[in-house]
Amino acid sequence: MRLGELGWVEQRNLVIDMRFTKGDAASIAPLTSELLALRPDVFVAGNDTMAIPAAASTATVPIVFAVGIDPVGYGVVNSLSHPGRNATGFSVGGSELGMKMLSLLKEAVPGMKVVGVLVGIRDRYKVESLDDARRQLGLDLVQFELTRPDEIDEAFQRFAKAGATGVMDFAAATTFDVRDRLAALALQYRLPMVVNSGLADAGGLLAYGPSFPDMYRRTAELVDRVLRGAKPADIPVELPTVYDFVVNLRTARALGVALPQSVLLRATRVIE
Questions:
Q1: Choosing a second label site near 259 at 20 to 30 A (CA), which of 174, 195, 249, 265?
Q2: 0.70 cut: is pTM over it?
């Protein structure tokens, strides 16, 4: 563990209290309150949506988020270069990431016309940010806002009725705990799907995004800086430096999709 490499050892000079949302957005606020009541030296959030209740509840406890989709838009920081508040972390670039995922899906399946998009309840702006990309790619988007992980069945039913020929998962924080079911539904409905790189092994056709192991490792380095006295307000929000593009050939065969060489050659990993 990176914190251990930096000199922080549990039960010696470090105590870690953890809570798990299990993909339930409604549990974020109460679990945040539980942790803040412990008066931690630093509050670590898996992503910036999970940091929202903490940022709204305290101006003194330092907050570090590992995966930021839109930390400025969510009000967690004032700006990426000058957070100006008690939070900092990493930004994956929500709209840019979505545009890249969408273009890779279209390149993998050139005949695709309609894409179903899974988004979190705070992220309806994401589909609007994809407008230019979907027009250039000749695509129509069908949006489904997930409030709970178990809504993915309903989402795929809606996508099927709308004539979707592909799916983009833009709600990884909600779908992570049901990623196997998500992949099964994509196969059931025979829909090529692009997911965040953190869900690569679940069974989607493509997975693209920042390397989660690298981001979590760098998050530990931010936590170390805060524990040693640095103020989040003075630490610019950082950007990913390592990206993963995973192609799942097993899923391609199951769907009968012949992936172009241009897609295969860019993959950082191929699942056989």
A1: 174
A2: yes
